[in-house]
Write a structure and sequence with these properties.
By secondary structure, this protein is α+β, with helices and mostly antiparallel strands. It contains 49 helices and 26 strands. A seven-stranded mixed beta sheet has the order 6-7-21-8-17-11-12, with helices on both faces. It has a five-stranded antiparallel beta sheet with strand order 4-3-2-1-5. A hairpin with a 4-residue loop joins strand 19 and strand 20. The longest helix has 159 residues, at 749-907. The radius of gyration is 56 Å and the shape is extended. Residues 1100-1119 have a biased composition (Polar residues). Residues 598-607 have a biased composition (Low complexity).
Length: 1821
């Protein structure tokens, strides 16, 4: 093993390539050291002879496939440039992963495409996670910085670098978004929003389009985000570096100026910008140099609105925004000012009436003449005098451009300063995180001063980066206590010294700038002379105006032209003075502020890049004297480096994959250039120089235990086992080192170990294959042998069967011959027999038809005679009957008239009605008695008849015996006569039978004809019915299809409606959540105000906004009749004295109300009849008779009589009450009290009887009123018949008036009869519906019994017996419960009566014993009343009385100080029941103020308790149960029929009487939703740290997961490795936590439906966190993890089944993670596999499926990666899906909660209040 040489056959290597930089190849022949040729085979199978020499070393080795695509480049076994480039390329192109770790550096490749990996759910997924636990991401770096800031209490920095277009600004923006989300401000300061709002402002004024980037940052910035002690954002500060001012006046081809200019021009047409005189950007010189003013996909007008909104959010006022816009517009107009040269060429002038100059001066508020003059002139100041000198056209144009750059630079600095002011805070800053967005190393064809400064800054940053990497490596080695060897790394200090040291490039540049006539050429010559001997400085061969600096990344040639001018940054003082004199204050301050700030606060940190000294420099003529740009930049860079060195840096290197800005296109050449420039390869080289591969002992043991011996496996000391293994595998001890917790390997050693492991697996596979193949061959041999024996057996059997078949055929032939001959002879015989029978039949038929014809002639004659005689007789009878009917009609008409008059007279008297009623009753009694007598007579007669029959039977028997005796005596003499008589009788019978036979034959013949016809008709009908049946079947099929379509559409509509309902509920609950959040914020602000105001305390208030918002009207009750008088009387005599008869009084009052209602209803009926009568009177033209008037008078008289009786009854009641009160108030003896008590009972009894009589009388009157018209209808029917008879006889009535009256009566009777018929029909319909309902009920019972019977029959006999026994037990149990309820009701009634009797007796005794004094007589009943009320009302009222003063004490005992454990042994939701019983009493006494106060205070108290115990799951669950129970009680006892269907009779009696609390029910429902959301939040907060560890990391199935080599970013790398970190959770711990939640909710009596919804929400949380973590971690996307995950999910489902939660819809929420686990395990090769995956993963989106496939990682080389073509196939198959473009599951999603109405079966009167609650002040009522 120690002689292993890597360059052997089949080893893969990297060779250099001109196009792809590096390309793979494979060694075809073993290479021996010293050979000049290495034989290779390229990927296209072409051979290659690779030369090896001193200048051509051996090629780089390739890593194993298992290591390709790793998250961390340092995890690669071979660390070199081709391995890094290939790993980045594979991750970027195949897996679409743009982030990769390289040690401490995050490499970010710009995808040029918007990816859905930056949402808030991704931030939540990375928040709180360790850096090595998740896939590489900018959020992981930000979280690491945030965590280290909190843990180490050290400031942090994130350094984002890269060339233009690599994505630096976007990365920095996402890092700040992460801090704003995770470290949001504690109060309502919106600091995080302001920090994010600064980005669009800085992009507008500092970003521009370049050829490499559409949104390139043309300045560097360092943003410090400040945090307080709780690590919330409190403010921010920004420093900027080296703004590219030259872009204001010039842009290269296809580039743009800063975005703000184009944004303003895009909005120039708006009314508010009319005074700016702007137009399109093409019309201005400063915005049209690049010849392309648009950016594809960018709307400048929309971006300008965003910029304005950001200014507003940062507190920049409208007038300041307007001034900024005017300055920007003025710069554009300044660029269009045209300067013309004079003839002499040394002077120039501005064109007259130049409108752009006018606009410039107007917008900036400066003098037009002065600006026009000093644009073309300059001032020269000498020691003696001052000169004004003309400028040439070129000089003037340069001065104009310099002025524009100067104005823009000052405006830029002013905006940065105001942004810093907006982000500044007065709070104390504890720590900060800085984000540095700075330009990367740049090299172009022409490099000038800007590139020099940029590369200088990158040299400084690279030096800091190298030292930090070196320091980390040294710390790691020292921490693990391994020998430290100095690692040689590139030190760029000489290059930095060349630039910034004394007499360096910058010093020489500043010196040349101070020379009056210094030039770029002179400065260049000085550089040649001074630094030509430097190793990092070179002079170009073909140029004397440029120089070369050898940077750490590359050689760069700089052109000297323009260096001095850009370093001076000259602008003329005269022009600045004009601007200082502007009439606009902001413009003037723009140029005064710098000077003042530099002189007043020289040492303060400024947001600008200019760092000035404290000393004031004397002014020199013609120039604004300040430090040069180079000096300023060096100072600001030095300050930046000091800041970075004082923080812990985190590095993000942005890579630009191609220059064409194409999405997911990787240019290897460009990538290698940037990797070399940004220091990634230097990091790799430093890592490779030491021990790049690092394993913990446990991971190494798990990975390579296959190489160990069996004896080593049993050793518990893993370190010793690993040492022994490495001693046997690797002989060179320098190749590895043993640390305290890790093993360190040199480069290539992990690959060697992987090869040994693969060889071990390969040999094991060969052995397994050998054994399996032998076993398969043995199976095959046995199968062939069995097949041969089976074939032989079947062959022999076949031969034997053929021989037997031949014998059988021979015997069958003989039998066939015999049968054929027999059949032939029999057919001949039957033919002759049929011919004979046919002849006989025809002959007999002929004779029979002759006889029938003769009989038919005689029969027809008889029929004709019979019909004629009958017709004559009927004609005679009808004539006689008509005459008799006519006479009868006349007589009956006369009698009917008389009878009608008599009946009308009788109907007027009520006495007649009473007599009629009593007569009818007497008749009924008589008829009943008569029926009884007749039944008795019938019984006696039957008995007599039976005895008579018995006597007759006995006499007949005697006579028969005598007859036999007589026959015996006289038998011989009469024998002959008897024989003759018998002969005659037989002949007569023979003749009769013959005649009967003939008649039957005739009848049968006719019937036969009829039947044959009938058969034919039936056949036709059958044919028609068949066709109809087919048509109906066809229609039924069509109808069934249509109904199925309708059902499917209906089900779809139902699901849509359900979704809409869920969405509405969800929106409503989100609003409640937002309301609770705002309420919480309001409370926090109030607390802060209270804390700031020392010495002032807010008075406590129990009144919330609920009191002001809900205006509950006070309901005042007015009793019917004399209720008010009765209340006044009770108040007069005292409550105690009236307590004894209050129940009887209420019953009487109720009876009076019923009677009054009945009277009103009757009166309304009579009024309707009167109106009907009036209408009939008008219709009949006032022909109303006196009888009708009398009827109406009678009805009104009867009504008055009832009213008088009712008043009399009321007066009697009042007199009885007064009598009772007088009797009670008298101080008489006990006998008098007893007499008064008896008198009271008798009076009450009489009053009840009188009420019953009155009620019956009312009912009788109604029946008489209805039955009267019916009787009249009977009489009128007789009149109708008589009138019809008269009409038929054509005899007109003698009297016309009488005929008219008869007609009216007939019509009236007809209407009455119609009404009766309608009433009868309605009654019949009602009865029919009732019968149908009863039938349906019986049918349902029958179906249930049938199902039970079928179920019983389907069981086994033993199960049938057991089932029947269970059914019988259930039935007996139900009967027993019913009997118990009946017994309980009887016992309650008995107890009630006994208690009432005892109470009355005690009252009587107290009245006997009480003294005469009124004070004592009043005081004793009060004391006794409390006792008696408690004893009396305990069982049947269920109310609790309390004083208004005790309300605070009640809420304190029931809500504020109660603990769930204190009431755990009592009835669940006891506080809710007690509160409702108090509400019932307040409703009972009609106290609306008390009800409103109690409910409002209860809601506020619950909110305070929940706020105090915001993270206590038990307390939140307890109050959710009580709040929902109080809500259900308000519904159950509201009196609404919809909520009373399941109530008992007693519960219905307890309903609220006076108040409608529907609005409070809504408030309680909202509160329940808020508590539910808080409960979910608490539970998720407890479970969240457990989910990922339990579901993905814990080994539920031991030894299933494998371990892969890890890099610098080990799992949990940012954790404390000393063992003080958080412990891992197992699946059992998670399930136990769920069980604890479930048991707590069950103990507190939470409704099962709500418990199910809580479990469903928690399972959704488990699914979301597990799936999100799976989608963001490459190390868990493997086959073994899928197996572990499926097992864990099965355990979760088992927990659901064990707790009867299958119907909670919790299991379907796990469907996405189930499908993800299945996706990790299924086969992923062919197109059929792709289709199967698409059909399987319906709950996963396309992005999630593709992400899992990209992350899928084989744990050993025997597994295969998912190919790119397979993933593309999956994407094409899933294109039809309309999935949301989101990758992660929303962890904050909440299902809409529904609180179903669940009434309580508990009786309030049986509720027991434990004494431990301290509620002794409550009184049972």
């Amino acid at each position: 093993m120690s002689e292993y040489y890597p360059y052997c056959q089949r080893t893969r290597v990297w060779i250099a390539d001109s196009e792809d930089v590096w390309k793979p190849a494979e060694i075809t022949k073993d290479y021996k050291e010293g050979e000049p040729i290495l034989h290779l085979r390229q990927e296209d199978e072409t051979p290659l002879e690779y030369r090896i020499g001193p200048k051509d070393p051996l090629p780089f080795l390739r890593n194993p496939d298992i290591l390709v695509g790793e998250n961390d480049l340092t995890a690669l076994s071979y660390l070199h440039e081709p391995a890094v480039l290939h790993n980045l390329k594979v991750r970027f192109l195949e897996s679409n992963h743009i982030y990769t770790y390289c040690g401490i550096v995050l490499v970010a490749i710009n995808p040029y495409e918007q990816l859905a990996i930056y949402g808030e759910e991704v931030i939540n997924a990375y928040s709180g996670q360790n850096m090595g636990d998740m896939d590489p991401h900018i959020f992981a770096v930000a979280e690491e910085a945030y965590k280290q800031m909190a843990r180490d209490e050290r400031n942090q920095s994130i350094i984002v670098s890269g060339e233009s277009g690599a994505g630096k600004t976007v990365s920095a923006k996402y890092a700040m978004r992460f801090f704003a989300t995770v470290g949001g401000s504690a109060g309502n300061t919106n600091v995080e929003e302001k920090v994010l709002a600064s980005s669009p402002i800085m992009e507008a004024i500092g970003n521009a389009k370049t050829t490499r980037n559409d949104n390139s940052s043309r300045f560097g910035k360092y943003i410090q985000i400040g945090f307080d002690r709780q690590y919330h954002i409190i403010g921010a500060n920004m420093r900027t570096y080296l703004l590219e001012k030259s872009r204001v006046v010039f842009q290269a081809e296809d580039e743009r100026n800063y975005h703000i200019f184009y944004q303003l021009c895009a909005c120039a047409s708006l009314p508010e910008f009319k005074d700016l005189a702007l137009s399109s950007a093409e019309d201005f010189i400063y915005t049209s140099f690049g010849e392309n003013i648009f950016i594809e996909g960018v709307n400048d007008a929309v971006d300008f609105e965003k910029t304005k909104e950001a200014f507003t959010l940062l507190g920049v006022k409208e007038n300041m925004q307007s001034s900024i816009i005017k300055i920007i517009a003025a710069i554009l107009h300044l660029g269009n000012v045209e300067i013309c040269s004079e003839r002499d060429g040394d002077s120039c002038h501005v064109l007259g009436e130049d409108r752009h100059l006018k606009h410039f001066c107007r917008l900036l508020g400066v003098e037009l003449e002065q600006m026009e003059h000093w644009l073309c002139h300059r001032k020269l100041v000498t020691s003696s005098e001052t000169y004004v000198k003309n400028m040439s056209c070129k000089q003037a144009s340069n001065a104009r451009d310099a002025l524009a750059k100067h104005i823009y630079a000052h405006m830029f600095d002013w905006i940065v300063e105001h942004v810093n002011k907006a982000l500044h805070t007065t709070a104390k800053q504890r720590s900060f995180i800085g984000v540095l967005d700075i330009y990367g190393f740049e090299t172009f064809e022409i490099n000038s001063f800007e590139q020099f400064c940029i590369n200088y800054a990158n040299e400084k940053l690279q030096q800091q980066f190298n030292s930090h990497v070196f320091k980390l490596e040294q710390e790691e080695y020292m921490k693990e206590q391994i020998p430290w060897t100095l690692i040689d790394f590139y030190d760029n200090q000489p290059c930095i010294d060349l630039i910034e040291a004394k007499l360096g490039i910058l010093d020489l540049l500043d010196e040349e700038c101070r020379v009056p006539k210094g030039t770029d050429e002179n400065w260049c010559q000085k550089l040649y002379g001074k630094h030509s001997g430097s190793a990092h400085f070179q002079k170009p061969r073909m140029s004397n105006t440029s120089f070369i600096i050898i940077h750490f990344a590359d050689k760069v040639e700089y052109q000297c032209e323009g260096f001095l001018e850009k370093n001076r940054d000259t602008v003329y003082e005269e022009q600045i003075n004009i601007l200082k004199a502007s009439k606009f204050q902001m413009v003037a301050d723009l140029f005064l502020e710098k000077k003042e700030s530099s002189s007043s606060t020289p040492g303060s940190k400024t947001s600008r890049i200019n760092v000035r000294s404290a000393k004031t420099v004397p002014k020199t003529p013609n120039k604004e004297h300040r430090k040069t740009v180079g000096h300023q930049f060096r100072s600001s860079l030095q300050l930046l480096m000091e800041t970075l060195n004082a923080t812990t840096p985190h590095y993000v290197r942005c890579i630009k994959p191609n220059d064409e800005k194409m999405s997911f296109v990787f240019d290897s050449k460009r990538a290698v250039q940037q990797l070399r420039a940004c220091g990634v390869l230097e990091t790799i080289r430093i890592s490779a120089a030491g021990y790049p591969s690092r394993w913990t002992y446990q991971d190494f043991f798990n990975r390579y235990r296959v190489l160990m011996k069996r004896a080593d496996m049993t050793n518990s000391d893993k370190k010793l086992v690993c040492r022994n293994l490495l001693a046997t595998l690797i002989k060179d001890e320098d190749k590895f080192q043993f640390g305290k917790t890790k093993i360190f390997f040199r480069a290539g050693q992990v690959a060697y170990l992987e090869k040994l492991r693969a060889d071990k697996f390969r040999s094991a596979c060969i052995k397994i294959q050998k054994t399996v193949r032998g076993w398969l061959q043995r199976l095959r041999y046995r199968k062939i042998r069995r097949s041969a024996v089976l074939l032989q057996r079947y062959g022999r059997g076949y031969m034997a069967r053929r021989y037997a078949e031949q014998l059988r055929l021979t015997r069958a032939a003989v039998i066939c011959q015999k049968q054929c001959r027999m059949v032939r002879d029999r057919r001949a015989f039957l033919r002759v027999r049929r011919a004979v029978v046919t002849i006989q039949a025809y002959t007999r038929g002929m004779y029979t038809r002759r006889i029938f014809k003769e009989f038919l002639l005689h029969h027809k004659a008889m029929v004709i005679q019979k019909n004629v005689r009958g017709w004559l007789a009927r004609k005679k009878f009808r004539r006689a009957r008509d005459a008799a009917v006519t006479i009868q009609c006349a007589v009956r008409c006369m009698r009917a008239k008389r009878l009608t008059k008599q009946l009308k007279i009788d109907a007027r008297s009520a006495q007649h009605l009473k007599k009629l009623n009593s007569g009818m009753e007497n008749k009924i009694v008589q008829l009943q008695r008569k029926m009884d007598d007749q039944s008795k007579d019938l019984k006696t007669q039957n008995e007599q008849l039976l005895s008579h029959n018995n006597n007759l039977g006995s006499e007949v028997g005697k006579l028969q015996k005598e007859l036999q005796q007589v026959r015996l005596r006289h038998g011989d003499g009469n024998q002959l006569t008897s024989l003759q008589e018998e002969l005659a009788r037989l002949r007569a019978e023979l003749k009769e039978s013959h005649d009967l036979n003939q008649r039957q034959e005739a009848e049968h013949g006719s019937e036969k004809l009829v039947l044959t016809q009938r058969v034919e008709e039936l056949e036709k009908e059958n044919h028609l019915l068949k066709s109809d049946k087919e048509q109906m079947n066809h229609k039924l099929l069509q109808h069934s299809k249509s109904t199925e379509d309708q059902e499917s559409s209906a089900s779809q509509r139902e699901t849509d409606l359900q979704k809409d309902l869920d969405q509405e509920r969800l929106r409503y609950q989100n609003l409640l959540k937002e309301f609770s959040r705002m309420e919480q914020r309001f409370d926090n602000l109030e607390e802060e105000v209270a804390l700031t105001k020392r010495g002032h305390r807010r008075n406590p208030s129990n009144v919330s906004s609920l009191e002001s918002d809900s205006n509950y009207p006070s309901i005042s009750t007015s009793e019917v009749g004399d209720a008010e008088d009765a209340i006044q009387m009770v108040e007069d005599i005292g409550v105690e004295k009236a307590a004894m008869d209050i129940s009887i009084f209420m019953k009487l009052q109720k009876r009076v109300r019923e009677l009054e209602l009945e009277r009103k209803r009757l009166q309304a009926h009579i009024d309707k009849m009167e109106e009907l009568a009036k209408s009939k009177v008008t219709e009949r033209r006032n022909l109303t008779s006196q009888d009708e008037v009398a009827d109406l008078a009678y009805n009104s008289l009867k009504r008055q009589e009832l009213e008088s009786e009712n008043k009399k009854l009321k007066n009697d009641l009042n007199e009885m009450r007064r009598t009772v009160s007088d009797r009670v108030s008298d101080d008489s003896s006990s006998n008098e009290l007893q007499e008064s008590y008896k008198l009271l009972l008798t009076q009450l009894k009489a009053a009840n009887e009188e009420l019953d009589m009155r009620k019956e009388e009312v009912l009788l009157l109604r029946t008489k009123i209805v039955s009267g018209p019916q009787q009249n209808g009977l009489v009128d029917s007789e009149k109708v018949s008589s009138i019809e008879a008269e009409v038929n006889n054509k005899k007109p009535p003698k009297d016309k008036e009488e005929a008219l009256k008869a007609y009216q009566e007939v019509s009236e009777s007809k209407r009455v009869l119609e009404a009766q018929v309608q009433s009868l029909s309605r009654q019949h319909k009602d009865e029919l519906e009732a019968l149908h309902t009863q039938i349906e009920v019986l049918r349902g019972d029958l179906e249930k019994k049938t199902e039970a019977l079928n179920h019983t029959m389907s069981l086994s006999p033993e199960a049938q017996v057991e089932y029947s026994v269970q059914q019988e037990i259930t039935r007996l149990t139900n009967d027993n419960l019913d009997l118990k309820e009946l017994v309980e009701k009887l016992e309650k009634n008995e107890r009630k009566l006994k208690k009432q009797l005892r109470i009355y007796m005690k009252k009587i005794q107290e009245l006997e014993v009480s003294p005469v004094t009124p004070v004592d007589s009043r005081s004793r009943p009060e004391l006794s009343r409390q006792v008696t009320v408690q004893r009396r009302e305990k069982d049947f009222e269920g109310m609790l009385e309390y004083c208004k003063e005790d309300e605070a004490l009640l809420l304190k005992a029931l809500i504020a100080e109660i603990r769930p454990s204190s009431v755990s042994a009592t009835v669940p939701c006891l506080p809710a029941y007690i509160l409702f019983m108090c509400i019932r009493h307040a409703d009972y006494v009609n106290d609306d103020e008390k009800v409103e106060s109690l409910l409002t205070s209860t809601i506020n108290a619950i909110k305070k308790v929940l706020k105090k115990n915001v993270n206590d799951f038990e307390m939140v669950s307890f109050w959710l149960a009580n709040t929902s129970r109080l809500l259900h009680c308000l519904k159950q006892y509201s009196g609404d029929e919809a909520f009373m269907t399941q109530n008992t009779g007693k519960q219905n009696e307890h309903c609220l009487k006076n108040f409608d609390l529907a609005e409070y029910r809504q408030v309680l429902s909202d509160l329940s939703i808020q508590i539910y959301q808080q409960l979910i939040k608490v539970a998720e907060g407890i479970m969240q740290p457990m989910i990922v560890s339990a579901m993905l990391e814990s080994e539920s199935i031991p030894s299933l997961s494998g371990v892969k080599p890890m890099g610098y970013r080990n799992r949990s790398s940012s954790m404390d490795h000393d063992g003080n970190g958080p412990s891992t959770y197992t699946l059992g711990a998670l399930i136990r936590q769920l069980g604890q939640f479930h048991s707590v909710m069950g103990e507190h009596g939470l409704d099962p439906e709500i418990v199910s919804q809580v479990v469903r929400q928690l399972f959704h949380c488990i699914n979301a966190f597990t799936l999100n973590n799976l989608l963001l971690r490459k190390d868990v996307c493997s086959w073994s993890t899928g197996m572990q995950l499926r097992y864990n999910i099965s355990q979760m489902e088992e927990w659901l089944r064990a707790n009867n939660l299958q119907q909670s819809k919790a299991a379907p929420t796990l469907e996405p993670i189930i499908q993800a686990a299945q996706l990790l395990q299924v086969k992923k090769k062919t197109s059929q596999d792709a289709e199967a995956i698409c059909a399987l993963c319906t709950a996963l989106t396309m992005q999630q499926i593709v992400k899992i496939l990209n992350l899928y990682t084989p744990l050993n080389e025997f597994e295969e990666r998912v190919t790119v073509s397979f993933i593309r196939n999956i994407q094409s198959n899933l294109q039809e899906r309309n999935d949301a473009p989101t990758l992660l599951v929303d962890t904050k999603h909440t299902f809409p909660v529904l609180f179903p109405y669940t009434p309580s079966a508990l009786s309030l009167e049986t509720l027991h209040i434990p004494a431990s609650l301290g509620l002794g002040f409550l009184v049972r009522v």
